[in-house]
Amino acid sequence: MVIEKKSMLPPLDDAVAHSQRFITIVCLAAFLPGLGCYFCVAYSFFFQLDTVLNFTHAFPPVSYSIGIWKPQRYIWLLILFVHLPPRIIFIVLYRRLFYTFSHEAKAFEITLKFYALTLWLEPSGLILVSVIDIKSHFIIHAIAYAMWIIFFNFNMLLNVILTHFSGFKQTHPKVVKVWWFKLLMLISGIAISISTPFTYFYFLKHCNVVAYTLFSVAECIMVGYNAVFYALSYYEFPSTRITVGVRSKASLTSRTFSTTSTVQSSTGSNSSYEKGTNHIPRST
């Protein structure tokens, strides 16, 4: 008995897509992690004040509210993994934006490639600092925190540079205002970020509560900076909708066949149809 082998047909005959307004992406990718982190810190003060006071008699670092104390840890992990897919959309958008405005200068190309790398490294640091808590692996947690804050500052710096030198800054007066605001955030954000290792090591050496509080407050400020910086993308991508979907090769084939057939019937010639069918993708 001979069994005839047939190619398996794709289960989806047409595109399956979901379109979302960009403001929704901004809320999930920018505001959600910032507000979620502040919620965890506020929860610690409102419902676990004894734990906070027994711990340090000062403003505790964010790492304890999102990584040690419960239920804040579970709330934060849920927020983290909800915000990651929309955050990837930010990475794709900014890469495509600056590639659109790119020019032949070698330095610009290198900067753009490094920017694409730092866009991935920043959320990677955030994942590590959230999953690996400060008690179980302090050194790894500290490295992950440094990774997050360093690459966030690099992202601010490279975004400002690329916006200016790509020509995107000149496309609209609103983009110019956003650029200046980002520049101010960059300058102040770098200063705040640089202060954190100094205040922390000063605390370790002198057990100074004020230094520890300044370190913790700087952490919280940078969380807000991160949320606001990426939320500004709303003004850089006006009237933008994000469509995520799946389209089978069979759907593409049928659409191409339909298009070429229409061309044939309207021109009365077989040449265009034959040329089109040579490029029709086949299901395998």
TrEMBL record:
The keyword Transmembrane helix applies. The chain crosses the membrane at residues 21-46, 74-94, 114-132, 138-162, 183-203, 209-232. Residues 24-239 form the CWH43-like N-terminal domain. InterPro entries: CWH43_N (IPR019402), PGAP2 (IPR039545). Keywords: Membrane, Transmembrane, Transmembrane helix. GO terms for cellular component: endoplasmic reticulum membrane; Golgi membrane. It comes from the Eukaryota. GO terms for biological process: GPI anchor biosynthetic process. Residues 261-284 are annotated as: Disordered. This is CWH43-like N-terminal domain-containing protein.
